[in-house]
C-alpha cells in the first residue's frame, strides 16, 4: 500500500439562464436556492472545449440593482469547480459576499472538470479520444480557457475591464494568461491571487518535493495504464464493492466507519470534513487532467516556473529550444495583489515575494491568521474578515488596495522547511511590499507605499486563538491529496 501511495505522490505536487446542460452539480439551482439570481453560460474555446460559467448578477431580494456594476471573475483551484465559491451557503460563501457588495460575479470552470467536460469533436469517455481530450496542463487553461471566458463576460456585460480573483491554480493560470498574452492586461482592472501558485523553488511540502524528480516517469506509467483523468464520473465504481460499499456517493460517506480506508480517509481530509460540516456536500469531485499535476511536478523538481517539459527533442520542435521557456512575469502589468499565509503547505512566502518582485505592479499581502491554510480562502469561516473584506475595499477603490502604513521591512523571509532535494538556502527576501491588514511591511522597487493612516489593526494573538475553525462538506485544503486514493488504488488493484 505504501508503494502505491509513493507512486502517486510523485504527481501530486493540487446565454442560457438556469440551464443544466453539462453540470452534474446543479450549481445554478443551488445559487437560486440560496436566494441569488443565477445564470449558466457556455463558451467554446479556440481549440474546441465547451466551458461552463456561472453568473450571479444580484441577490433575488435586491430592491434595486445598479447598472454598470463592477464585473468580478472568479477562477477555482486544481480539481475544483465554480461550486467552491458558493459551497458554504449565503452567509459564508466567497461569491455571495462579492454579490452583496454590489458586484456582477462570474465564475469560470476549467476544461476537464465535470462542468466543462465537453468538446465539439472529442469524447472524454472514449478509450482512444480521451488521450487527446485530456492532453492539457494548466498552460492551456491559461492560454485558451481564460481568454474565451473573459472575452465572453466582457462582451455580455458590455464592459471594457473586469476584476480577476483566482484561487490556487486559478492564480497559476492567471500568471500564464497575463504573461503569455500580455495584450489582455488592459482588460483586467485589478487582480487578486489567493494562494496563487507560480514559483516553486521553496515548495514547502517536503515529501512531495523529494519525489517530484520522478514526475515524468510516473506520468508516463500512468498513461500506459490508461490513466489520463483524475476523478472521472463514477470513479468509485472502479473499486471493489466491499472497499467502497456506497457506490456513487461522496468519499466522505464511504469513509464513515470504514476501517479499511481509515488511513486514506485521514489523508484526504475526511476527518476534518466530517467533524465540521457547514453545508450538504456535492455528489462528486470535479476532476482534472493528470497532465496538470505532472506540470506542477516538473516545476517543483526543476525549481522554475516554466512551460511543460516534453523532452529535449520534442521541446525543440515545440519551443525552438531543448529546454522549455520560463513564464516571464515581468510582462504582467496589471495591478496584482498576491494573498498568502504562513501555514500554506503548497506555497512558500519566499516564492510569493520573488514573484511580486518580478512583476512591475504587484504587492504581497500576508493573511493575519498564521494558521490560515491553502484552501481557507474559500472554506474558512473567518475568510470574509481576513481576506474578502480587503478585496471588496480594493475593488470599490477602483481596483487599488486600501491605504497602507509603511513600517520597517524584515531583512529575511520567514524561515520555511527546505526540501531535502535542495541545498540549504541563503537567499534573502526579494524587494516587495507585504501588506498585513492595512499595515505595509517593507519597501519595494516596483511600487512605493505611501504612508497613510492604517485602516485597521492586525488581530492580536488572543483574537487569533478564538478564530472560528474552518469547515466544509467539500474540503479543498486537502483536495490535492484526494487523487492519491484513486490512482494508488488503481495501481494496487489492477
UniProtKB/TrEMBL annotation:
<keyword id="KW-0442">Lipid degradation</keyword>
<keyword id="KW-0732">Signal</keyword>
<dbReference type="InterPro" id="IPR029058">
    <property type="entry name" value="AB_hydrolase_fold"/>
</dbReference>
<keyword id="KW-0378">Hydrolase</keyword>
<comment type="similarity">
    <text>Belongs to the AB hydrolase superfamily. Lipase family.</text>
</comment>
<keyword id="KW-0443">Lipid metabolism</keyword>
<keyword id="KW-0812">Transmembrane</keyword>
<feature type="compositionally biased region" description="Low complexity">
    <location>
        <begin position="406"/>
        <end position="430"/>
    </location>
</feature>
<feature type="transmembrane region" description="Helical">
    <location>
        <begin position="473"/>
        <end position="493"/>
    </location>
</feature>
<protein>
    <recommendedName>
        <fullName>Partial AB-hydrolase lipase domain-containing protein</fullName>
    </recommendedName>
</protein>
<dbReference type="GO" id="GO:0016042">
    <property type="term" value="P:lipid catabolic process"/>
</dbReference>
<keyword id="KW-0472">Membrane</keyword>
<keyword id="KW-1133">Transmembrane helix</keyword>
<feature type="region of interest" description="Disordered">
    <location>
        <begin position="443"/>
        <end position="471"/>
    </location>
</feature>
<dbReference type="GO" id="GO:0016787">
    <property type="term" value="F:hydrolase activity"/>
</dbReference>
<feature type="domain" description="Partial AB-hydrolase lipase">
    <location>
        <begin position="28"/>
        <end position="87"/>
    </location>
</feature>
<feature type="region of interest" description="Disordered">
    <location>
        <begin position="398"/>
        <end position="430"/>
    </location>
</feature>
<dbReference type="Pfam" id="PF04083">
    <property type="entry name" value="Abhydro_lipase"/>
</dbReference>
<feature type="signal peptide">
    <location>
        <begin position="1"/>
        <end position="18"/>
    </location>
</feature>
<dbReference type="InterPro" id="IPR006693">
    <property type="entry name" value="AB_hydrolase_lipase"/>
</dbReference>
<keyword id="KW-0325">Glycoprotein</keyword>
Amino acid at each position: 500500500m505504501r508503494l502505491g501511495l509513493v507512486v502517486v505522490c510523485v504527481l501530486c505536487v493540487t446565454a442560457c439562464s438556469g440551464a443544466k446542460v453539462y453540470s452534474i452539480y446543479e450549481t445554478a439551482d443551488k445559487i437560486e436556492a440560496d436566494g441569488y439570481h443565477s445564470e449558466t453560460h457556455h463558451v467554446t474555446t479556440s481549440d474546441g472545449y465547451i466551458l461552463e460559467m456561472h453568473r450571479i448578477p444580484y441577490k433575488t431580494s435586491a430592491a434595486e440593482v445598479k447598472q454598470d456594476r463592477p464585473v468580478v471573475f472568479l477562477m477555482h483551484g486544481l480539481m475544483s469547480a465554480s461550486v467552491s465559491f458558493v459551497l458554504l451557503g449565503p452567509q459564508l460563501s466567497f461569491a455571495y459576499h462579492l454579490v452583496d457588495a454590489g458586484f456582477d460575479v462570474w465564475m469560470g470552470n476549467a476544461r476537464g472538470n465535470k462542468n466543462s467536460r465537453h468538446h465539439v469533436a472529442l469524447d472524454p469517455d472514449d478509450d482512444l479520444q480521451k488521450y487527446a481530450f485530456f492532453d492539457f496542463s494548466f498552460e492551456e487553461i491559461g492560454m485558451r480557457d481564460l481568454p474565451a471566458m473573459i472575452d465572453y463576460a466582457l462582451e455580455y456585460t458590455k464592459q471594457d475591464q473586469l476584476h480577476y480573483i483566482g484561487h490556487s491554480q486559478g492564480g497559476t493560470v492567471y500568471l500564464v494568461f497575463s504573461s503569455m498574452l500580455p495584450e489582455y492586461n488592459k482588460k483586467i482592472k485589478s487582480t487578486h491571487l489567493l494562494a496563487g501558485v507560480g514559483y516553486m523553488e521553496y515548495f514547502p511540502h517536503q515529501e512531495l518535493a523529494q519525489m517530484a524528480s520522478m514526475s515524468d516517469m510516473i506520468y508516463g506509467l500512468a498513461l500506459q495504464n490508461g490513466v489520463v483523468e483524475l476523478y472521472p464520473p463514477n470513479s468509485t465504481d472502479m473499486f471493489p464493492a466491499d472497499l467502497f460499499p456506497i457506490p456513487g456517493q461522496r468519499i466522505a460517506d464511504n469513509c464513515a466507519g470504514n476501517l479499511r480506508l481509515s488511513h486514506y480517509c485521514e489523508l484526504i481530509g475526511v476527518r476534518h470534513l466530517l467533524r465540521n460540516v457547514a453545508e450538504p456536500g456535492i455528489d462528486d469531485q470535479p476532476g482534472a487532467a493528470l497532465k496538470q499535476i505532472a506540470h506542477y511536478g516538473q516545476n517543483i523538481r526543476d525549481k522554475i516556473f516554466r512551460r511543460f517539459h516534453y523532452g529535449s527533442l520534442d521541446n525543440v520542435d515545440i519551443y525552438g529550444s531543448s529546454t522549455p521557456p520560463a513564464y516571464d512575469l515581468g510582462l504582467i502589468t496589471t495591478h496584482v495583489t498576491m494573498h498568502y499565509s504562513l501555514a500554506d503547505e503548497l506555497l512558500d512566502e519566499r516564492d510569493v515575494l520573488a514573484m511580486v518582485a518580478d512583476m512591475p505592479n504587484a504587492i504581497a499581502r500576508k493573511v493575519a491568521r498564521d494558521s490560515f491554510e491553502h484552501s481557507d480562502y474559500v472554506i474558512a469561516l473567518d475568510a470574509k474578515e481576513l481576506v474578502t473584506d480587503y478585496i471588496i475595499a480594493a475593488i470599490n477603490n477602483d481596483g487599488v488596495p486600501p491605504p497602507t502604513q509603511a513600517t520597517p521591512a524584515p531583512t529575511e523571509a520567514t524561515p520555511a522547511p527546505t526540501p531535502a532535494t535542495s541545498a540549504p538556502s541563503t537567499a534573502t527576501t526579494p524587494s516587495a511590499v507585504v501588506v498585513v491588514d492595512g499595515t505595509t511591511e517593507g519597501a519595494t522597487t516596483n511600487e512605493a507605499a505611501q504612508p497613510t493612516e492604517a485602516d485597521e489593526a492586525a488581530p492580536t494573538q488572543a483574537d487569533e486563538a478564538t478564530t472560528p475553525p474552518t469547515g466544509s462538506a467539500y474540503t479543498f485544503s486537502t483536495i490535492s491529496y484526494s487523487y492519491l486514493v484513486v490512482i494508488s488504488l488503481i495501481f494496487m488493484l489492477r
